[in-house]
TrEMBL record:
InterPro entries: DCAF17. The keyword Transmembrane applies. The chain crosses the membrane at residues 198-218, 230-249. Pfam families: DCAF17. Keywords: Membrane, Transmembrane, Transmembrane helix. The keyword Cell membrane does not apply. This is DCA17 factor. GO terms for biological process: protein ubiquitination. GO terms for cellular component: Cul4-RING E3 ubiquitin ligase complex. The gene is Dcaf17. It comes from the Eukaryota.
Length: 526
């Protein structure tokens, strides 16, 4: 009561009587006692320091590995998650190193689990970050992020499914989906005329505390013969088909409507006449959600290669017309009535080996990012003047690759005066021209980051640029010291004062380069 009274007094003192206005003022840090004010100020200071001309990013650590390297929130994982290294320290250092695991214990997929704010949890270990991993033998393990110790373990595969392979979030940090590989019959069984109707299994878990919600199957008899893949995101079941069709269903309604009986981990149950324990070997999990009829369809669209995205405000979706000749052409349509937005056809007309790509901006602004070889467009949705019910796509800002020194003349004259005509023109993503390879968003610093690469002979050079997320202004450019081969696979992470580059070379050779922010480097070689 005293706290409530103090809050009302503060409202009266500042003259704010509207809840929306109060929340807006809090978001902008008007109240010094607000818990997030200091954090926002610190991030603002970090952004200013980082973008100063005197601030450099120094390559402080490099390593190579014969197994994949992964990065999650300041932690570098190697040797199939058996080795964990912190990248937060001034020099990356080992957190833990576990003994080499057998092939039967190989980890197929992993998710980082972080403690929710303001919730009471049953175990002290729940308040620290942990890693949820899926092994090749269908064990779901929760590991301590600090020691690698096994905190919880659940056996997934009962008599129904033997190949769980993928982890994903339905609701981030709340509801997790474990998906099986697609069920395929051996060739001999197919030749014998045996039919396989179950394509995928999905196991659904609530996390922290880890609890089993249910398991369901995706069956040809319900969803059709041409299903190629399924996914769950934000309460929506997404079913993809071989002819480019994408269908959306209400996943929460499916769980409620077709749940036969709820089960808890550790609970005894009777399955096909055998008594087992939920989540324990050898019984695993019961398939307690049986879809007996086609669920109500929320939405469907046809798109090339099943490419389909939803976002913006009001809700819009992005597709590519389902014909190969339209590859690289994107239609932005209203989810409400399928109406194409004004200027809603986006086509960069690129002549390149790698296609351009488009997606809704992850900053929740409703904007759209369209990336081509030498151009990045940030687009926004806005109402058409005098037509409030119609939306149009407008350009917010663009970022252009630096190709000032690029000469692409079709006609050249030799020293002797002979005129030579080229029979071909350079591609838009020709390695000798600066080309955008990666675009990302750092949410805590509100910066848009881009990686641009130029191949000079056998040596490729890349630089990471930071742009103002609101206006696209270039604030900082960081040259990457290592050579960048455009034929290799690359990942670049920008995490506050850290830049991390993971490279995959042929024959499963992996490299990791860590850059740390340093100030006043006049006396350094860097």
């Amino acid at each position: 009561q005293a706290a409530a009274g103090g809050g009302r007094a503060a409202l009266r003192a500042c003259g704010v009587h509207n809840v929306c206005r109060l929340l807006s003022r809090r978001a902008h840090g008007f109240y010094a006692r607000d818990a997030g004010v200091a954090h926002r100020k610190n991030l603002g200071l970090l952004r200013k320091i980082m973008c100063q001309e005197s601030t450099k990013f120094k390559n402080v650590w490099t390593t190579h590995s014969a197994s994949p390297i992964a990065y999650e929130r300041g932690r570098i994982y190697m040797d199939n998650y058996q080795c964990c290294i912190t990248s937060i320290a001034q020099q990356p250092r080992l957190i833990y190193q576990k003994s080499k695991c057998a092939k039967s214990e190989k980890i197929e997929d992993a998710l980082l689990l972080e403690c929710p704010l303001g919730e009471m949890l049953p175990n002290p270990s729940d308040y620290k970050a942990s890693l949820i991993v899926l092994t090749v033998q269908n064990w779901l393990l929760r590991l301590s992020a600090d020691s690698g110790e096994v905190l919880e373990k659940v056996y997934l595969a009962g008599s129904c499914c033997k190949f769980f392979r993928y982890l994903s979030w339905d609701t981030p940090q709340e509801v997790m989906i474990v998906k099986s590989a697609q069920n395929k019959l051996p060739a001999a069984a197919r030749q014998a005329g045996i039919q396989q109707t179950v394509l995928f299994y999905l196991a659904v878990f609530q996390v922290l505390p880890l609890s089993f919600i249910g398991m369901l199957e995706i069956n040809k008899k319900i969803f059709g013969n041409s299903v190629t893949d399924v996914a769950v995101s934000n309460g929506i079941l997404i079913v993809m088909y071989s002819m480019g069709l994408v269908r959306l269903y209400n996943f929460k309604a499916i769980l409620e409507q077709f749940m036969e009986q709820p089960y808890d981990l550790g609970q005894e149950f009777n399955w096909n006449g055998q008594v087992g324990v939920v989540g324990k070997y050898p019984f695993g999990l019961p398939c307690n959600i049986k879809i007996t009829d086609t669920p109500p369809l929320l939405f469907e669209a046809s798109s090339l290669e099943n490419a389909f995205q939803i976002g913006g405000y009001p809700w819009h979706y992005i597709i590519t017309p389902n014909k190969k000749k339209h590859k690289g052409v994107f239609h932005i349509c209203s989810l409400k009535d399928n109406a194409l937005a004004k200027n809603g056809i986006q086509d960069m007309k690129c002549c390149s080996l790698e296609p351009d790509w488009i997606y809704f901006h992850p900053d929740m602004s409703g904007r759209i990012i369209h990336v081509g070889p030498n151009l990045i467009k940030v687009l926004k949705l806005k109402e058409v003047k005098n037509h409030a019910d119609q939306m149009e796509i407008a350009e917010d800002f663009t970022i252009v690759a630096n190709r000032e020194n690029c000469v692409n003349n079709n006609v050249t004259v030799t020293a002797s005066g002979r005129v030579v005509k080229k029979r071909f023109t350079l591609l838009d993503d020709d390695p000798e021209q600066e080309t955008f390879k990666i675009v990302d968003y750092e949410d805590e610093l509100d910066l848009l980051s881009t990686v641009a690469v130029t191949q000079i002979g056998a040596d490729g050079r890349a630089h990471l640029d930071f742009h103002c997320n609101e206006h696209g202004i270039l604030l900082k450019s960081i040259p990457l010291k290592e050579s960048w081969d455009v034929t290799y696979s690359h990942e670049v992470y920008f995490d506050k004062d850290l830049v991390l580059h993971i490279e995959q070379k042929p024959n499963r050779r992996f490299s990791c380069y860590v850059y740390q922010m340093v100030c006043d480097t006049a006396r350094d070689d860097d």
